[in-house]
Design a protein that fits this description.
The complex is a heterodimer of chains A (about 200) and B (about 475).
Chain A lengths: L6 E8 L6 H4 L19 H5 L13 E4 L11 H8 L4 E4 L4 H8 L4 E4 L2 H12 L3 E5 L4 E4 L2 E4 L4 H9 L3 H23 L17
Parallel strand pairs in A: 1-2, 2-3, 3-4
Antiparallel strand pairs in A: 1-5, 5-6, 6-7
Chain B lengths: L14 H8 L1 E4 L4 E5 L2 E4 L5 H9 L10 E3 L18 H16 L2 E2 L10 H7 L8 E4 L13 E4 L2 H10 L1 E5 L2 E8 L8 H12 L7 E6 L1 H4 L3 H9 L8 E3 L4 H7 L8 H11 L12 E6 L6 E3 L7 E3 L12 H9 L14 E4 L1 H4 L2 H11 L9 E4 L4 H9 L2 H8 L2 E2 L20 E4 L14 E4 L2 H10 L10
Helix pairs in contact in B: 2-5, 6-8, 13-15, 13-16
Classes of the chains: A alpha/beta (about 200), B alpha/beta (about 475).
The structure holds iron/sulfur cluster.
Chain lengths: ~200, ~475
């Protein structure tokens, strides 16, 4: 994953509340098994309904969204589609939890802001302002001022470093995992029935 | 926070905290925990990219035996005796088959009677057990919390992480107790309870919380009814819905194919009986609902919290508001009664309400009646085993004689990516869990309700109160 540095760019304003991942990426496109080029299907039904705010060809690197953005289905396609539109940072007053986790795993900053800041950012986005994101300082700035946003400390660190969570866990915690397994085998043998020691692969 | 010691719980703990602590492999300075994951369910839609992640990093699956795969979302539920027609769905199912073959993961394939919706087949097979952590690339994984398992939905990247490392970094949730006191009215179900709760606290009301459901109405509920309830925790924003295991749970699990046997069963049972919240345990939030006061609920909007008792009138929201936009999409007029709203489709199925008890309940209401002529009504059992059991009990004939279609197992009209779909502008009464815009097809209008309500509505031809039908 590419490390996230600073970002200064235009933003899209999408103030609707409860934009679920079915709206972001309609289910029928889930038949596609690749993760590239999905921006073409982003918000497809909204676009078909005449919504010109977002969708293929309307990308900006920053998205200012409404409350509970990305709620619903866990489909990571929603994040891949948004990423393919060129979005690198999303700000909202709240997010669907699984969506938020998926953002971090794909190099996208999902920052939580207060109602007031959200309103200011929407206005700035609609006015075509440049918005600046500083992940190190956890601030977002527009012509109206500089504001704090919140993001999990772990997500922040991972985004800044561009870490691959999977290989990182394996590199740093293999021994702890093996120790845990040894103990669980004794404490809860029914979870290990018919599984021999050799069947465990150590991904190191 | 340094490294935590697994297998030890603090004094007065909630069930969630107990399950959490038991699975901590390591902590980090940011307050997260590396959680050990005991079981992983896979389906064809959320895992192609997970296997790609394994390949890209040259990784194998750490414990293949802890994974179980099944195709459900994309598979057609008609003409299943035939091979899948060429196309994206077939390619996707083929890909799952190839991936499972290559990485040594067991697959319950389309011709297997055990095939069905992930959240239906896993409990059925005894793959879901109390006390475990269970994940799936699917937001309705909370369903398995009905067994006292710490179960939550994850993204495709995380599915890859779990397969390779058997662990995930997680942030501990706050805890919310939802207590349902009293006894449910006849033909009122746990589906109505969860819809009422979501209506009360909102679609993000439990975001950041792990819910534990307690109270008389839970203690007396069957496992099927408990699963319907936990299934929709995510519709209130929570990834986790828990119920402490009890005799109902243990009876359900005894003799299930993958449940522990013999000495293992005894040891497991002794442990499972300890899985509950202590009397003095602290919940960050408590919600109490009197179950005996709950009427059948029906959603009227495009978010599951836009829901009301069926015998009330639609709200009259301010112009331009979220509620007004939803009513507009739904083609509903403010202030009108919900009862009597004409429907075009009736769908009984999904991981919320596609289990045997749901079909029995619906069949009890349908028996001796006919589906209204303008309604297309379909029943889609949640698994091949539910289908076989229903057929052995003659439920399929009750449905087909009334004019329902009887399908094979799958997600079907819950997600409309498999050939079953509601046309634009048409109105559907559905036992599924999401009434999002376009969920049952572009422009489709979905009313969520219980199997009893959907069955009664299919016969009436409009939204109907099941308490007045049987
Ligand atoms: S039935 Fe619906 S909610 Fe359940 S797993 Fe299938 S698509 Fe998801």
């Amino acid at each position: 994953m590419k490390p996230f540095d600073t970002l200064a760019a235009k933003a899209i304003s999408l103030p609707d509340d409860d934009v679920d991942t079915d709206i972001i990426y309609p289910a029928r496109f889930l038949l596609i098994t690749s993760r590239d080029g999905l921006g073409e299907y982003a918000f497809a039904d909204r676009v078909a309904g005449g919504d010109t705010r977002i969708g293929a060809g309307t990308g900006a690197p920053i998205l200012i969204a409404g409350r509970n953005f990305g709620c619903g289905s866990s489909r990571e396609h929603a994040v891949w589609a948004i990423a393919d539109l060129g979005v690198r940072a999303i700000f909202a007053t709240s997010f669907g939890e699984i969506f938020r986790g998926n953002c971090a795993n794909n190099g996208i900053v999902a920052g939580v802001v207060t109602e007031d800041v959200a309103e200011t950012l929407h206005a700035a986005a609609q006015a075509g302002d440049r918005i600046e994101v500083d992940l190190v300082g956890r601030t977002v700035a527009c012509s109206a001022g500089t504001f704090a946003f919140s993001i999990g400390e772990a997500e922040r660190e991972s985004l800044l470093n561009g870490w691959n969570e999977t290989t990182r866990i394996l590199a740093l915690h293999e021994q702890q995992i093996a120790r845990f397994e040894k103990r669980q085998r004794v404490a809860e043998p029914w979870l290990w029935a018919n599984e021999t020691e050799q069947e465990i692969t150590e991904n190191v | 926070m340094g490294e935590q010691t697994p297998f030890e719980s603090p004094g007065a703990a909630t069930l969630y905290e107990r399950l959490w602590t038991r699975h901590v492999v390591a902590g980090d300075p940011n307050g997260r925990a590396l959680l050990y994951i005991d079981r992983h369910l896979l389906h064809e839609v959320s895992t192609p990219q997970s296997f790609e992640l394994l390949r890209a990093n040259d990784l194998s699956v750490r414990r293949p035996a802890t994974n179980l795969a099944v195709p459900d979302h994309a598979v057609p539920t008609r003409n299943r005796a035939l091979p899948l027609p060429p196309g994206l769905a077939r390619d996707q199912v083929d890909l799952l088959r190839r991936n499972c073959g290559e990485f040594g993961i067991e697959l319950l394939d389309l011709d297997d009677v055990r095939q069905g919706i992930v959240h239906v087949i896993s409990p059925e097979q005894g793959f879901t057990l109390p006390g475990i952590t269970l994940v799936c690339g699917d937001s309705h994984t909370a369903t398995h919390g009905a067994f006292g398992a710490l179960a939550f939905g994850i993204g495709a990247s995380e599915c890859g992480t779990v397969m390779a490392a058997q662990c995930l970094w997680q942030t501990r949730a706050k805890t919310m107790q939802v207590r349902f006191d009293g006894k449910l009215d006849d033909n009122v179900t746990t589906k109505d309870l969860i819809l009422a709760l979501i209506g009360q606290i909102g679609a993000a009301g439990a975001t950041g919380y792990a819910i534990e459901f307690t109270g008389d109405a839970i203690a007396s509920a069957s496992m099927e009814a408990r699963m319907s309830l936990c299934n929709m925790a995510i519709e209130a924003g929570s990834r986790t819905g828990l119920i402490a295991p009890d005799d109902t749970t243990f009876e359900y699990l005894a003799e299930r194919p993958r449940a522990p046997k013999g000495k293992d069963w005894d040891a497991a049972l002794a442990y499972w009986k300890t899985l509950k919240s202590d009397a003095g345990a602290h919940f960050d939030k408590t919600v109490v609902i009197d179950a005996s006061e709950i009427a059948p609920h029906v959603s009227w909007g495009t978010s599951p919290d836009q829901v009301a008792p069926i015998d009330t009138a639609l709200p009259s929201p301010a112009a331009g508001s979220r509620d007004a936009k939803a009513q507009d999409y739904m083609g509903l007029e403010p202030g009108k009664p919900l009862l009597g709203t004409q429907i075009d489709f009736a769908f009984i199925g999904s991981c919320t309400n596609g289990r045997i008890e749901d079909l029995r309940k619906a069949a009890g209401i349908v028996k001796g009646h006919k589906v209204a002529p303008h309604v297309q009504a379909i029943v889609v059992p949640g698994s091949g085993q539910v289908k076989a059991l229903a057929e052995a009990e003659g439920l399929d004939r009750v449905f087909t004689e009334a004019g329902f279609e009887w399908h094979s197992a799958g997600c079907s009209l819950c997600v409309a990516m498999n050939g079953d779909t509601v046309p634009t502008g048409k109105r559907s009464a559905s036992t599924s869990n999401r009434n999002f815009e376009g969920r049952q097809g572009p422009g489709a209008r979905t009313h969520l309700a219980s199997p009893a309500t959907v069955a009664a509505s299919a016969i009436a031809g409009h939204l109907a109160d099941p308490r007045k039908t049987s």
